[in-house]
């Protein structure tokens, strides 16, 4: 269970569902598709009119999301994930795909 937990910036422990869910996908590009849908939901809710307390939660979620994207990028940079294989399968550069997944808020 500890492998599914992560400590947030405020010291609170939470379930690292984005990181843990990668193993649930047969293909890495499907995992990135999931991350893309996650990003779209956050973007949609950040532009919606929410009370400040709710907006703060979406901002936290955006930071968590971006941290996961950053970890994926690092895996490409270190060679743990193959950028050449990614291009062969997805027909796009991994860096460009990851840039689109980053949330700017």
Tell me what you see in this structure.
By secondary structure, this protein is mainly alpha-helical. Helix content is 64%, strand content 6%. It has 5 helices and 2 strands; from the N terminus they run ββααααα. The protein has helices at residues 17-21, 28-47, 52-77, 83-90, 94-101, and strands at residues 5-7, 13-15. A two-stranded antiparallel ribbon has the order 1-2. Helix 2 runs antiparallel to helix 3 and helix 3 packs antiparallel against helix 5 (94-101). The longest helix is centred in the middle third of the chain and has 26 residues, at 52-77. It is globular and about 45 Å long. The mean pLDDT is 93.
Highlighted features:
single chain, 105 residues, mainly alpha, two-stranded antiparallel ribbon, 2 strands
Give me a quick take on this structure.
The chain is mainly alpha-helical and 105 residues long.
Radius of gyration: 15 Å
Q: Describe the biggest sheet? A: 2 strands, antiparallel
Morphology: globular
Percent of residues in β-strands: 5-15%
Count of separate DSSP helical elements:
5
Secondary-structure element pattern, one letter each: EEHHHHH
How do the helices and strands line up, and which of them pair or pack?
Blueprint: E1 5-7, E2 13-15, H1 17-21, H2 28-47, H3 52-77, H4 83-90, H5 94-101
Antiparallel strand pairs: 1-2
